[in-house]
Design goal:
Layout lengths: L1 H30 L3 H11 L3 H8 L3 E6 L5 E7 L2 E4 H6 L5
Antiparallel strand pairs: 1-2, 2-3
């Protein structure tokens, strides 16, 4: 009887230790961010320099769609409009 109690106690301790180890491994992997998420965040934070230029000079950016479905940005300031990349290159003034 005493021997079976010792065996049961040993099994219970071993299972408890195994559970704690597995829990620690799970928590380490859960808390650690994956590299894919970091790359996605970096890409999402890079802005279009022409759009940023428009905002920096106090303009309002408007995205328009041409007849072929392509999109382009127009910077609007004081009632004047300029395509954002032309403004960025200095080909247009607001």
């Amino acid at each position: 009887m005493k021997k079976s109690k010792n065996i049961l106690k040993f099994i219970l301790i071993a299972l408890s230790i195994l559970f704690i180890i597995l829990l620690i491994i799970y928590l380490i992997n859960f808390i650690k961010p994956s590299n894919n998420n970091l790359k996605k965040n970096v890409q999402a934070q890079i802005s279009n320099p022409a759009s940023t230029n428009c905002i920096d000079i106090g303009g309002e950016l408007e995205i328009r769609t041409d007849e072929n479905g392509g999109q382009y940005g127009v910077c609007i300031k004081n009632g004047k409009e300029c395509e954002e990349w032309a403004l960025f290159r200095g080909e247009c003034e607001l």
